[in-house]
Amino acid sequence: MKNIKKVMAALALIAAVAAWFQASESTRRYLVYIGKQVPYLPYRYFI
Amino acid sequence: MVADYDVIVIGAGLGGLTCGSLVAREGLKTLVLEQSDIIGGCCSTFEVDGYKFDVGASIVEVIQPLERFFEMMGGKISDYLDLIPCDPIYSFITDDGKRFSVPTDIDETTELIKRIAPEDVEGWKRFCRVGLEMIEDMMDAVMLSPMNTFSEAMLLAARNPQIMKFAPTFLRTHQGVIRSFYKNPVMIQSAAFQSYFAGAPPELGSGVFGYIALSEHLGIYYPRGGMIGIPNGIAKAGADHGMEVRTDVKVEKLLIENGTATGVRLEDGTTITAKLVVSNLNAQVTYFKLVGPENLPRWAVKAMASYQNSMPCPMIYVGLDKKPDLEAHHTVVTSTLESMNNVWNNYYKLGIIPDTAMSLVCWPTEADPSLAPEGKHILNFLCNAPAPYSPRGDNWDRLKGWYKEAAIKELETYVLPDVRDHIEYIQVSTPLDFERRLLHPEGGIYGLFSDMTTLAMFRPRSRSRAVKNLYLTGSSTHLGGGVPTTVASGIVTSKYIVKDHG
Asked: Are residues B466 and B296 in contact, defined by beta-carbon separation less than 8 angstroms?
């Protein structure tokens, strides 16, 4: 079970890296931008 | 102690006036305080030398929130507003010099697309099908209903299950939505530039704004006498129910006792008390200046500081003694999708004023000749390309003359080759001017930046959680800047107030 979880995590990471390299510059900028905003969401939700 | 008023509204913008009018109709004694000498905020009109110029907003579309507001006030829209339909919607000048006008009628637009982009006719029909269904299904459910919390959003979804299929649209980008319908670059640019109407580039703006290009086909209107006709109509409806509006009154601070808003202190030291206060100002101005960080919990300070403002947008007001060479109320000088994004990434973010052409020329005297002396015309020229609030190594007060000259050259290229000989009046309103006049931080006239992380329950709440009995309305709240959206925000805020205090 532990090994399956590790394999799944590795596959997800590989898929994410592959998707990143296939994405356009524009999409990458969007993902970076959204990534920077995510930590603020819990604060924004309550204001 | 008996309060002077039930409700004080700070700011006579569309959200403030709408909310104030609706709570006045519910029998609450309501006072609206406006720091300027005219009401309306961004949706207003001023007169110089016989010319009437609109401050910012240049048209109204999606008039359902206005219709709903006047119905809620016990009347109908035609009792208060004289709206002139504008057709065609836009005249486009593309980066390669093509010129074409987009009619309001959907069938006529289909014929136009058959000529300029035949490969996108099917995409256009799909855009209409999906978009019209979305607009119809979401108008009441999303635009006019409170959605400050997950539980409110879930309740909305439970009551209106048909809207769930549109939820992914909120998670997509503006350009993502447009590209899912169109392949032709001209079609893409004609529907992508509206992202800047919400203050963001197409690659960051929310997908929901991708449908602005369709909502315009439901009709765009210009109020006779100028955009101030809309706030005047709303204020009149409010006055009919006892709402009081005072102009030239500057609010300095919100009065707070034990974490509860109890009124306002004016610049001259006068205090006015109320059971509750509504702020129509930008949320950062409300929390950081009127409330003060010292009266806020740390999480609230962190939340407010995390928001960016939408882009500033310098405007040039021009009075001409000759008819301009234009075909529609709005002429858009547009550019490719790539340039629209590059102008943000390679200019705006670096503090450089872009030299690329992406502008909106508004010709209000086409719809209403009474705005200028007989035989003369007005142009409101909006440099829609984002211009930085702090140009690198300079400031807007010094750049005003240079910017005016750049604008005249653009008008010579696209509007009237001899425009210089026919200008009777010209004035530039820079981001600094907008900040001083409208109290929008950094001149961001579209309120807070709009993307998927700042919409719905992630935008400042209409009912404040940080200060009891403080309510917010206007472009800082859900759904952001624009005439229909700010009117809708006023309706939503009034619903909270009536529920809490009615």
From this structure: yes
Q: Is residue B472 within 8 Å of residue B303, measured between CB atoms?
A: no
Q: Count CA atoms closer than 13 A to B497's CA, side-chain side.
A: 35
**B453: chain A residues, CB-CB within 8 Å:** 34, 37-38, 40-41, 44
First to last CA, chain A: 42
Chain B touched by A32 (CB under 8 Å): no
| Token couple for B203 | 């690659």
The minimum CA-CA distance between B295 and chain A, rounded to whole Å, is 14
Cβ distance B47 to B20 under 8 Å? no
The pLDDT tens digits of the residues spanning B353-363 come to: 887 667 899 99
Q: How far apart are CA B334 and CA B383, in angstroms?
A: 11
Plot region of B394 (φ>0 → left; ψ -120 to 50 → alpha; else → beta): beta
pLDDT tens across B405-428, in order?
A: 988 998 898 888 999 999 999 999
- DSSP character for B307? P
Question: Which residues are CB-neighbours of B294 under 8 A, at least 6 positions away?
Answer: none
ipTM of the complex: 0.89
Q: Specify the pTM.
A: 0.94
**Chain B residues closer than 8 Å to A26 by CB:** 175, 203, 341
Residues of A in contact with B303 (CB under 8 A): 40, 43-44, 46-47
pLDDT tens-digit map of B382-402: 876 788 999 998 999 999 999
N residues, chain B = 502
